[in-house]
Specification:
Blueprint lengths: L1 H5 L8 H5 L7 H8 L3 E4 L5 E4 L19 H23 E5 L14 E5 L14 E5 L15 H8 L10 E8 L4 E4 L6 E2 L2 E2 L22 E4 L4 E5 L21 E2 L3 E10 L5 E2 L13 H9 L2 H28 L10
Antiparallel strand pairs: 1-2, 3-4, 4-13, 5-6, 5-13, 6-11, 7-8, 7-10, 8-9, 11-12, 13-14
Length: 336
């Protein structure tokens, strides 16, 4: 009876089990275990096998995909890198080289700075105390020698790793924004809306905040909306807003010409550091006169109208009284 129950799988009335001793391992089962197959035994003794190899028994083996050659992928990688560099240069950050000593000691000749070009896309405008890069607004660089880059420098400037020799850009510190009154008398201090600035932390050692000369070092200016007033940190060696007051913008820089704010000194590595706004530009009261000064640019018409109206009313009343006394009609005269 036992042979019949165990041999139910074969369907041959147990003869298969009579050929093999009871308890002996089935060679097929042994092969299945060796090959990692799984099996289940049903209550009636039926064994169901699960082969991990899928359809490997069909004899078809999928071929492994050959990796692409490095030299074939290299042009693709270079293309992606160039596109990313151009996008970063256009919308995010661009590197600029300092060509002069006008911003010493904050920036030295040959320093590389990274300029934030992203925030202006969201409507951000320059603020007092920031170091900004801007396009030459009105031939400030006239007479300066033009750079002659080699082929490598041209490529690097095109992708934003070096400044373009064709672009005439300057870098200065923002002193006044639209609505501000900026004033220099004698050697200083520099006044913004009547508040003296403490500039010891960034003005070149040995310089005075204001320059005593008759070429623009002594001034009082009102910055119109949409413009900024800029000065170099090396006050006695910077041709900035002070010395360009005879141009079409009266020394002001249009905000639309600002490329962005210099945020980091990136090279050389031993001069790495950020370019924060000095605390003196955050002093209390520096904004109080800004709105009043800004109103001056549009107020004269209103002031004139306010002054003219009472005079006109007084003259009309006087003319009416005179006409009533003489019996003359009050119709308009001098209609031509």
């Amino acid at each position: 009876m036992g042979d019949v129950a165990v041999g139910a799988r074969s369907g041959h009335d147990g003869e298969e089990h009579r050929r093999h001793p009871e308890g002996a391992a089935d060679p097929a089962a042994r092969r299945a275990v060796a090959s990692g197959s799984e099996s289940e035994t049903a209550e009636d003794g039926t064994v169901t096998e699960y082969n991990d190899g899928g359809d490997q028994g069909s004899g078809s083996t999928p071929e492994a995909r050959k990796p692409r050659s490095f030299w074939k992928e290299l042009p693709i990688l270079i293309g992606i890198a160039l596109v990313l560099a151009l996008l970063i240069k256009t919308f995010l950050v661009q590197a600029f080289s300092i060509p002069s000593d006008s911003m010493q000691n904050t920036l030295q000749r040959g320093d590389r700075v990274l300029v934030d070009k992203l925030t202006p896309w969201f409507g951000s405008e320059p603020e007092r105390g920031e170091v900004v890069v801007f396009h030459d607004p009105a031939d400030w660089l006239a007479g300066e020698p033009a750079a002659s880059p080699n082929a490598l420098q041209t490529v690097l400037s095109w992708i934003g790793l070096m400044p373009s020799a064709e672009e005439k850009d300057l870098i200065k510190r923002v002193i006044g924004v639209g609505g501000d009154t900026v004033e220099c008398k004698n050697t200083g201090p520099l006044l913004v809306n009547g508040k003296p600035l403490d500039e010891q932390s960034y003005v070149y050692a040995g310089n005075t905040p204001c320059s005593v000369d008759d070429q623009g070092g002594q001034f009082t200016v009102h910055v119109p909306k949409g413009f900024i007033w800029v000065m170099g940190d090396h006050r006695q060696n910077s041709r900035d807003s002070r010395y360009n007051q005879s141009d079409t913008n009266h020394g002001m820089v249009p905000v639309k010409e600002v490329v962005g704010r210099a945020i980091v000194k990136a090279w050389p590595i031993n001069r790495w550091g950020t370019l924060p706004v000095p605390d003196t530009f955050d002093q209390q009261g520096i904004n109080q006169q800004s709105s009043a000064a800004g109103a001056l640019s549009v107020a004269p018409e209103g002031v004139a109208l306010t002054a003219v109206v009472p005079v006109a009313v007084w003259r009309r009343r006087r003319a009416a009284k005179a006409a009533a006394g003489t019996g003359t009609p009050t119709t308009a005269t001098g209609g031509r």
